[in-house]
Structure formats: structure tokens, C-alpha cells
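Hey, sorry to bother you again with one of my protein questions. I've been puzzling over a protein and I'd love to understand its fold better. Take your time with it, there's no hurry, and the full record follows here:
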Amino acid sequence: MVQTAVSGLNFELNEEQKQLQKMARDFAAREITPVAEHFDQSAEFPIDIINKGREIGLVNLNIPLDYGGPGASVLEECIVAEELAYGCSGISTAMSVNNLSSLPILIGGTDEQKAYWLGERMVEQGHLAAYCVTEPAAGSNVAGMQARAERRNGHYVINGSKIFISNVNFSNFYTVFAVTDPSARHRGISCFIIERDTPGIKVSKHFDKLGQRAADTAEIVFENVEVPEANRIGAEGMGFLLAMKVFDHSRPGVAAGAVGVARRAMEECIRYAKERETFGQPIWQHQAIGHKIADMAINIEAARLLVWQAAWMVDHGAENPKMAAYAKAFAADMAMQVTVDAVQVFGGYGYMKEYPVEKLMRDVKVFQIYEGTSEIQRNIIVRELFR
């Protein structure tokens, strides 16, 4: 029994996954890290980096081989997410939004929708897409959204707004959730694919953000936007369930990004603590500093294991909101603490833009907010524990 149990566990990546990890790590070192400071200051959208990433298979990762994509598993998405976020989580977010935007189509779309929107548009034409759920009055409470989709003569008319939407200024189409039956509450939400150039769409300027400044984030408004019925994903009223399934797939990757930022902060601390001396010795030899960095290492390893377990479960058909919430909450909170401690390790220098850790601290805060706040993750965990 003991041997069977041991042989059934394997924490080693296979050779293909190791090659993918190295490719992503090399790409981040070559294309992302050297320009991260520039994009943080300018808040420019890193379209050239996205295009380079797409050319080697680091964008559209989850699009299946049948539609021309890499066909990566959720675990493999997490491997890439950690490496790219190590370089810059803002640029990494901009590169990964297609993974999120494609999920409603992957999970609930028809074969024709997948072939056209994923294969022809995303893979062949290199189009970007945005995922539109959050509203000014409905963030964590998805069921409280107010955007309406009314059926009229074989099409839908969309009215409402979405806020904090990533890549929206540079996307060619959107996956949008809207209410088709207000009386049905969360069972009255549906999902649609909407072309960017459809009349009635207005997009705001890029928001000026605390961190992840390279990732475009803006508001989108729909005013009598007509959408063909063929662009609805799944049946009417299935939008809420679809959005929850999307979270099960997407949250492990977001958590992996937090691990990447935390790992970068720890490694910056290790380099600095070897060089910086106080009272006649490198500061890592002072227990107060050494223990901070040891705690970073412990928590980064623990977070990565939670991320990989959550991803493994999705890949094996055992989607579990509780495990995804464990990974997202722990990784986000851990990374925030690691980056705060990293600034402390650097002391006064950590507060200066000349050094990298203040940017890491600013960038990582949003991991506790988007894709479901840390508080919402705990609500999910409580709900699952007390079922």
C-alpha cells in the first residue's frame, strides 16, 4: 500500500513541461525584465512583446491543437504564468488575457464558434480579446450585474457598462456577460461574443493605476449594441454557471503569477542581502533579515504546491472551487506580504524607484483584488466547507 501511494505521486515536471518552463523563463529574461521599468513608467501597452510571445507559443496557450493553438494544460499555463510574472506581472497580464477571454468559448461554445473565434481570429489573425464581467456596481457579486441583453427580432440589444476590463482598448472582440432575464437573478445571465467595431460601443482611456501599469485597463459602455443570436455562448441563462467554471480554470494561473512576483522579490532580497553590510557583516547573517527571507522561501514553495494541485485537479476533470480558492487566496496574500517584507529588507533603498522591489509591491497588490478578492475566496472556502 505504501509503495502504491508513493508511486502515484509525482512532483517532477515532465521533459516537455521543463522545456516550456525554460522557454518562458528565457523569454522573460530576454524580452520582459529589461524593459519592465520603462513600461511601468510609461504605462504603454506591450503589443510588440505580446506579438513576440505569440510567435513562440506563449500567447493563446489554452487554445486546443484542433484550432491551431498550443493546447496547453492548466498546469502548463501556470508554469508559464509564474515565469512571465517574474519578469513583470503587468506585461504578463497583458499577454495572458486571451487565455481568460477564450475560456467561455472553450467551455460553452459550439464547434463552429471555437473554430472561428479561437482558431481563425485568435490564432490565425492574432486578434486579442477582452473578458467583460465586472461592473461599476457589481464586482465580486457577479449575480448583481445590471448590463441588459434584450432579445429583438433574432438578435440581442446590449445596454450597460463594464469596468476594470483588461486589454479592452486593444481587443478585436469581447466575451461579455449580461442579464437576459432579470426575474431569474443569477439564472438570468447569458454570455455573448461582441465585435469591437459594433456601433454603440465606447471605451474609456486607459486607467492610471498603482501597479501593473503596462496592462491596459479601462471601462467599456454598450449603448443599444446589436449582437446576432449566433454570438450567444451556450443557452440563455447559463452565463453565471459559465462564469463560475471560468474561475475554476483561470484562478490557478492568476495565483501562479503571484508566485512569480514573490519569487522575484525573494531573489532580489537574496542578492541584496549578500552585498549589503551592516555592523561588519552581510545583512543576511542578521537573524531578523535571514528569517524574513526564509519565511519568503517557505511560503513561495507552499503557494506553488497549492497552485499546481488546483491546476492538476482541473486538468483531471476534478474542478473544485475550494482548491482554486485556496491557491488564489494563499498565493495573493503571501505575495503581498513577501513584497512588503522585501521593501523592508532593502530598507530606505527599497522605497526608491531606483530599486526593483517597490514596483513589485505595487504590482502585486491587485492579485488580492482581481479574479475574486481574497475575501471572496474565503467566502467560497467557507461555503464549500459547510456544504
